[in-house]
Amino acid sequence: MTGLPNRRHCLAWGLASAAGLGLRAASASDLVVRRSANLPTAARRVVALEFLLAEMLVAVGRPPVGMSDPALYPGWINVQTERLANVADVGTRQQPSLEAIARLKPDLILGLTYRHAPLFDVFESIAPTVLLDFAPEPPRTRLDSAFALQRMIGEFVGRDAEAVRAEAEVSAGFDRDAARLAAAGRSNRRLVVLQELAGLDTYWVFTGDSLSAGLASRLGLRFWPSERSREGVRPLTSEELLGLDDADVMLVSMTGPNVSLDAKTRSAAWQRVPALRSGRVGLIERNIWNFGGPASALRLSNRITNLMLRAPAAG
Amino acid sequence: MTVLAAERPTLVRPIPRLRIGLPIAAFVALVALARLWPTWHALTTAPGPVEAEAARFLLWELRLPRVLAGLAAGAAFGMAGALFQAVTRNPLAAPDLLGVTAGAQVGVLIGLTVPALAGFAGPPLLFVCGLGAASLALLAAGGWRAPPLRLLLAGGACALLLSAVLTVMLALFEQDIAGLALWSGGALYQPGADGLVEAACWLLPPLVALPFLVRGLDALALGDDAATGIGVAVLPVRFAGVITATALTAFAVALAGPIGFVGLIAPNLVRAAGIRRLTALIVLSALVGGGLLLAADGVVAGLGFSAGLSTAVATALVGTPLLLILVVRGQLLSPPDRTEAAASTRVASLAVVAPALGLALAALSAFGLAWGETWLAPARWVTAFAGGDNEAALILSIRGPRIAVAAIAGMMLAASGVVLQSVVRNALAGPELLGVTQGAALATLVGLLTWPLIGRPETFALALVGGLATLGLILLINRRRRFAPLPVALTGLAFSGLFAALTYAVIVETSAQPARALIWLVGGTYGRAWPDAVALLPWLLVSLPALALLSRPLDLLTLGEDAAAGLGLNVALLRALGLGLAAMLASAAVAIVGPLAFVGLLTPHLARLVGFHAHGDRLPVAMLLGALLTIGADILGRVALAPKEIPAGALTALIGAPYFLWLMSRGRRGTQ
């Protein structure tokens, strides 16, 4: 939009330089920003302080003993929720209850750098702690990070083999979806993924480093916008969609299923969006799979593929 | 010019209306044209019918509605400000300062999180919430006749309370409201003309009501008795005035987001230009407000900042200097305001009260160590100390430092409040209403977001730089006015507003996930460890002798500046030392616990309420009370919704604000 460096660039630069080595590559060890010196060889009582960490622990067959906001997990991720039935609630993701964590006598605490960096010392006084990051270096995406994180978590809990197998399953799922798209002649179409927000016709669009972008390349699709951002999203208004003639737009809802796509796209601007006119806008149920792990990515892949196949053939 | 303008309309000739109105109208038209010109140009030079059609859509359905939305919202804010000011006869009454904007914001959040209310979301819900906030502020300040400063502070306390509510909701429903922070910065994007037309329906009722109100409100400027004398029903007119102004605000907030600052700036600018008559004032305020918002939105769009985000920041950046110029030039002065909070006779001597409070502090701390999801009887503390009970030791190491940090920070904030109130000679000042806390918080937050692994010394440095710089600016601006209470309070409020807007901008620009920053902004003791307490303690210890030394001179200062100087006191030096000490105490506390609200504002009053006026007595009592309040908030926040944590800052605001407002209304009755 502009050639001038704005605040976002300056702050991004500051953050990148501060994080330093941690962001250089998306190989497993570099996704760890802080970790205790001595970790158990195979942790058995793990506390997960973010949804995606709990999801990955389930995927490798070692569900956490405690997690943040388990009551909200079904509403936002809902992948293998039944395997988290007995997990203890340790409070919110941002300010988990230290006492609740301590009571569980964990042997490993998994958190995220951007939320929990100031709490590292406190966590470590309770149990060995690893703080993870999933900002990928170009040209990698958050999908690559998700796979790398899941493999690493598999190692932490001594379930390396399960992690490899889970990854293979998800990859096979992507391949099946890619094949379905190719068979219907939908390969190479341009994918745009939006997250609905509270504002009037204002959205987050997932950018070139997002999990969706990684998914697009696995599904044989092109992705818009290709530029990267620090957290995988940037704001967008419906006006920007007017110029996209050949895109399939996936809108991730923030409301319940009672509000239809028609109700969400009533504005004059939406009515002129080429994708809507040609029936290529799909509504995906409320979720945060874009901020989840490989299993979330597979859910997202299935939804996108189904919605794209439902849209009329390219004309 | 130095008197509340509306009070003496007869002295000023109402001639310059046209001379001023025309240039303003021309300016607004010019800004609007500049905004529309590129699209118009594209339309006229379109090479084919397809391009022309697209350009036509762009012009008529996107650009023009956005410009009109900016104009309408700005105008509504401007008119609302002019109305509030006429109703209260207070040049500083504005949607923001009365808490109406914050109330409307709570309305937006309720509409989002309570699906059952979705049908009423939009202007009606915003109107109800805004009206509630305005009533609260007016009630606490003591009704229509409240002096400007009192109303200002009641509104400020109201706004602080509502923003605490807002932040707690944001923190608890983190995912549901992702992106709401984006809207909080002001969003004028209009995806078509229809939506604007629909929204405009809500502008009609207040606009229709306006002409019927003007005569009555104009008469109010003469004073209640004079107005009654010429047959104006004073109470109904005021009532209708507040409702109309709130409806205007609700419309504007629904359309453009919480940019209520415009409502303060626009009428005061118009008044500074010599306009006195209400009709002219309202019309011109609408024009100026519309122009301001449009220009701010244009700057934002032109520079390509994130979608709609920075309109509030741009408005604050433009508006704050204007406001400060008015302060410096003394055009916002008003009659002296004697607002002393309730004074009462001493309940007992310090020798009784201080040990009693100390005992209460020890008891509350012990209770805090024991109470929680796991009850820890004192017997287990002993075994834990002896190394025999690892679980108890672990839990004590979580609860202990939080209580210690709460106690130290509470004392520091309370001491800061006492000194500040005496030096500024404003019984209702506090570090959070003077912008010192917000300045320290902004600097610290930028540091925390930019370098997530930042250490404690750097945090202290940033907080001190932010807090002291804010104080320095306030002092610099008010130097020539000899730190008169109203200009100082107003300068502080202006800075608070600016910093709040900047803080939101920093949060939204650095991260799409604002929860961590928002929670820090409420202030709290969560996750604080022994090193935090150890780092904070020296600041308190160093300031204790200074406080002891200053307490006697501060007593003299309360006798009045001249009396103090007559007794051989170097007033300027005392002020500088006192303000520096107060700012240091508040800033250092902010570095560890964040901008905890109301402790510094409230505890000095509590100390006075139990009868301690001399600083030598009041300081220790206030500090002990500050520690008690903060520890109480810490324990309650940890246990109330366990395992969910409520930030202690939210609790001090939720406990402190109602009490403060009650205290204000009580103090008023006491003086009447």
TrEMBL record, chain A:
Per UniProt, what is one Pfam family of this protein?
Answer: Peripla_BP_2
Q: Does the keyword Methyltransferase apply?
A: no
Q: What is its main location?
A: other
**Per UniProt, which keywords does this protein have?**
Ion transport, Iron, Iron transport, Signal, Transport
In this protein, which residues make up the domain named Fe/B12 periplasmic-binding? Answer: 45-312
Compartment(s): Cell envelope
Kindly give the InterPro entries that the UniProt entry links to this protein: ABC_transptr_periplasmic_BD, Bact_iron-sidero_bind
Query: Which protein family is named in the record?
Result: Belongs to the bacterial solute-binding protein 8 family.
The protein's name is Petrobactin-binding protein FpuA
Automatic annotation (TrEMBL), chain B:
Record has Transmembrane as a keyword: yes
Chain segments annotated as transmembrane: 20-37, 67-85, 97-118, 124-144, 151-173, 239-266, 278-296, 302-327, 347-371, 403-421, 433-454, 460-477, 484-507, 533-551, 563-582, 588-607, 619-640, 646-664
Entry-linked InterPro entries: ABC_BtuC-like, ABC_transptr_permease_BtuC
Q: In the record, which residues are listed under signal peptide?
A: none
The subcellular location is:
Cell membrane
**Superkingdom in the source lineage:** Bacteria
> What is the membrane topology listed in the Swiss-Prot or TrEMBL record?
Multi-pass membrane protein
Query: Quick one: where is this thing mainly located?
Result: membrane
Sorted alphabetically, the keyword list is: Cell membrane, Membrane, Transmembrane, Transmembrane helix, Transport
Membership in a protein family:
Belongs to the binding-protein-dependent transport system permease family. FecCD subfamily.
| Protein's recorded name | Petrobactin import system permease protein FpuB
Name the source organism: Methylorubrum suomiense
For this protein's source organism, the top of the classification is:
Bacteria, Pseudomonadati, Pseudomonadota, Alphaproteobacteria, Hyphomicrobiales
